[in-house]
Amino acid sequence: xxxxxxxxxxxxxxxxxxxxxxxxxxxxxxxxxxxxxxxxxxxxxxxxxxxxxxxxxxxxxxxxxxxxxxxxxxxxxxxxxxxxxxxxxxxxxxxxxxxxxxxxxxxxxxxxxxxxxxxxxxxxxxxxxxxxxxxxxxxxxxxxxxxxxxxxxxxxxxxxxxxxxxxxxxxxxxxxxxxxxxxxxxxxxxxxxxxxxxxxxxxxxxxxxxxxxxxxxxxxxxxxxxxxxxxxxxxxxxxxxxxxxxxxxxxxxxxxxxxxxxxxxxxxxxxxxxxxxxxxxxxxxxxxxxxxxxxxxxxxxxxxxxxxxxxxxxxxxxxxxxxxxxxxxxxxxxxxxxxxxxxxxxxxxxxxxxxxxxxxxxxxxxxxxxxxxxxxxxxxxxxxxxxxxxxxxxxxxxxxxxxxxxxxxxxxxxxxxxxxxxxxxxxxxxxxxxxxxxxxxxxxxxxxxxxxxxxxxxxxxxxxxxxxxxxxxxxxxxxxxxxxxxxxxxx
Length: 491
Known about the structure:
alpha+beta; CATH 2.40.240; 4 domains; 12-stranded mixed sheet; 4-stranded mixed sheet; 31% strand; elongated
């Protein structure tokens, strides 16, 4: 295995500071669906190294380390932790996919009832890199998952809403008509009173005998007659009813008959208005009855979304999809970062490679036992009875045991439900192995496989004879010895 070289550059300006960084005891880790890691030690005095602009170069979130080995793509990390240990600086750097971790959504609210989860990943990276001091030059693969987040509004509810809107228009029109007809009734009454020389607001009275009691008011107009016709008009002078002149009677009676006709029109308008109110209320009730068909958009917002790294991780588990970091040289001095997407997964079954205990695998894989639960209760966002919650169940033929998991970052029920299914799936209390230690060997040399790939494992582990495929989820390389530490999943 050729030697590792390390380089230091500033971020976000990407100015090279040291093309031969003396990183001691280095370890380089690449991970499936997670950030790479570069760690090691530097002399204590290296803390004061300066960038070309005179500022300190080795600072958290202001510097990047590149790990390079001849013939292989480089590994890139953002310096995120620096501590002292005697005469040494302990330095660690996380891959570019660590950048979204702990970062809130700061753009306008994003909301969609039908969006591919991988489009959400691209939207997140686009927003993070929208800011000049956040641009890492990361390009996300254009892969689609074929699944969608968000729930569109049901067709029946859409139709019911359209009908409610139509009935609202009809109700508004009918109400306007009734109000107009009521105004005409008032206008005709006012004109009839005015023709008799009276102010508005008085009563129009039609009866064959002279009105008595309260009806004898100086404001009221009495028309003597019945349904067959009128024979005269009278006003009250305070002592008796005084008959109108012929001219005033003719003018007042003309407006009176228009008033009578308009009252019939108003009656019909009010009846239609009452009908429209009933039909509108029925339409409104129909919309309410279909509330289960309401749209449930997928959202990103500054008041709710506070960790974009967790959003991406959750989407990767729920969709599912996988990702890995890829950094390549663009010329001699520039780096190109790509987020490689596998939907639902990627990885190659490496038929020509072999892991054998006692040959290139240095020790039997250590056994670990997973936790046991047959039911998991996941508690999401909210408090008290309004808290989002979901159960995940898995019959295991043992006593029922329920584990409680708090995930206050989950603010949607579907995400809480997905988390409950994921949590209960792995709590089977089975013995398994998760790691392998090996040396760089011609049967399976470093660089011949990547995270996500499948390798064949054989040999006597002491507790079992290995004869199976394992999937590599993490590769750790000791920069001094060249030995490899793999995290694996049995298949």
